[in-house]
Amino acid sequence: MAILSKLFKPTVWNFIALAIMFVGLIIAVIRFIYGLGAVTNLSNTYPWGIWIAFDVLSGVALAAGGFIIAGTVHIFNLREYQPIVKPAVLTAFLGYFLVIVGLIVDLGLPWRIYHPLIYPQVHSAMLEVALCVMFYFTVLFFEFLPNIFERLNWKVATRWIHMFTIPLVIAGIMLSCLHQSSLGSLLLLNKEQLSRLWYTPSLPFNFFMQAVAIGLAMVIFESQMSSRLFNRPPEDKILTSISKGLRNILFIYLIWRVIDLTYNGNWSVLGNSRFETFWFSVEWIVGVLIPVLLLSTNLHKNPTTRFWMATLVIFGIILGRINASLTGMSSYFNQIYIASWEEVTISAAIICAGLLLFQAIVRNLPILEENGDEEESPEPAVVTY
Amino acid sequence: MDCTRRRFIKILGICGAAALIDDDPLLADPLSPSLHPNSEFGLLNDGTRCIGCHSCENACREYNNLPAFETRPDGEILYPTELNDRVFTRIESKTIPSVDSSTGETVTYRRHQCNHCLHPSCVSACPVGALVKSPEGPVYYRAERCIGCRYCMNACPFTIPKYEWNSNKPFIRKCTMCSEKVLQGEPTSCASVCPTGAITFGTRNELLEEARQRIAQDPDRYHNHIYGEFEVGGTNVLYLSSSAVPCADFGFPMNVGNESYPSLTWAALSRVPGIALYVVVWVTFVYFITQHRIPEELKNRESEKTDSDLKE
Ligand code: SF4
Ligand code: SF4
Ligand code: SF4
Question: Rounded to two decimals, what is the model's pTM?
């Protein structure tokens, strides 16, 4: 118990999270004994479900904040963003860890997860995805390692690993660019199945832009959440400029997609299927248009609106990925996939694990330390949402 | 095509990854033109000759050790209505009003199976080369490599690969064109049992020739289209359909286009080494530029920071 209380506060939410993780664990055991069919609604028509659409496709995107902020600070030398580098890298590290957990549950033969390394087939987009997951996770691990060294007060190791910061950041940016876009390349083979509302030869680029947007939104979300959780002053100035960046990238994404849909003559399929059109509209109105409009006003300086706008962007882009990999195929297959409660529980358990790990790590490692000293902070430490 | 592939591997080699490339001839470029156009085997499924006797379904089941079909209590066999991990081929029937309208109705048939594409989407999708296209035609599966990502299922334009959903050690299952037999030049099990010659085994060129002849000899009977001649860049399994129920009416995917599927992702993937190199060079360049201006800037910022701190 003593160790547990060092890891996280015994709040109701944390106990609920633990409970969900426990149920998830039981479902995972059933899945490994009786097969995927026993707990999922996956079928020969929909071989991929929310474990891929949400945990992997969206999870990787949520981690994009790590390489963007690390690049901003270490490569572009914009030191004012320094305080959020460590939390962003931690979010990315945990994000990738959870993506791998999700993959292990989803893969039919997860104990062969290393096969892409020994039998690579270079024409496969999935190979690029697999290699990027492995390599970038390794890079993130090394970017995270200094926290442990600092905590243990290993001076030599700390100095030694800091020499590798820049190469690691560069490798991280390169792998992220490839990885984020390769998720879009995966869907290029669904030329026939996927509705033209989502299918376009520029899917890899679209996925990359989505990742930048959701990565920035996640930085805002995570930073304001942890200010609240750990009673720290919010990084208002930084977050205000990040939300400007978020608005800009969303705006570019919006214009790009309009051009893309027009150029390929794909607006005509709007309305072909009511189900697809509905979810397409939700994705765009809630996830892009409203945030772009509101973030363009002075409201982006207001922490509460900023937080909710970031949440909408996160929602919209996750929905976009679910649409592009599941919803968008419903009219072709004339069949809808709806996740089973077991699938949802496993995904929820994975998120809960992420939240708990985040708390435990922030409480025990010097992640938020450069956040300005608490005593000096003149602002009230409580933000209301 | 071949030149871009070679360039790709060269760039990979520069990146020090050449040792990782599997030199397996079976992984030969799925984009390159068909390897052995004259000796590649295939099947010609003639829907107008099929009488729906289900012999091919039974032969396939026996040859591949698949479980028996379900039977009704009165002993009637319930033939499969979908392909799955226990069914690699099936006959679909369609009842239409008879042409001469005197006899009422006629039944037409279509066979479902893997099309053994010349440029198989599934092979290009598999990250570990578990699915391969052999030079003799069959697209078959090396189970020992599969990781179970199911991308092949997602990628196949004909939704052919199926999964063993209820196994804790699941594999992909699909028609293999009886690869063990075909690699020795023997006809497939289904072709050798068909009583009416609705399934013809032969090299792809022979089959195309044969199909054209059949259409030419009886243009009223046949719909003038050989499905698989050009679709998705060509397939080794070809289909003829009757003029009464052309392939479009029988649910053959008509929008797949004539472009090979692997080229869709290759358009993006072939750029990967270039993009990687570009990003690294560009980022490093930016790094050195911005480093150059730190000392002063950092000082400014530092003083700004203390200034603002003091103000607060
Ligand atoms: S039909 Fe599908 S499974 Fe068969 S070879 Fe073509 S892509 Fe592969
Ligand atoms: S499920 Fe197996 S055969 Fe299919 S793409 Fe994945 S690794 Fe390859
Ligand atoms: S070729 Fe072999 S595996 Fe394929 S349908 Fe015929 S009998 Fe079955």
Answer: 0.87
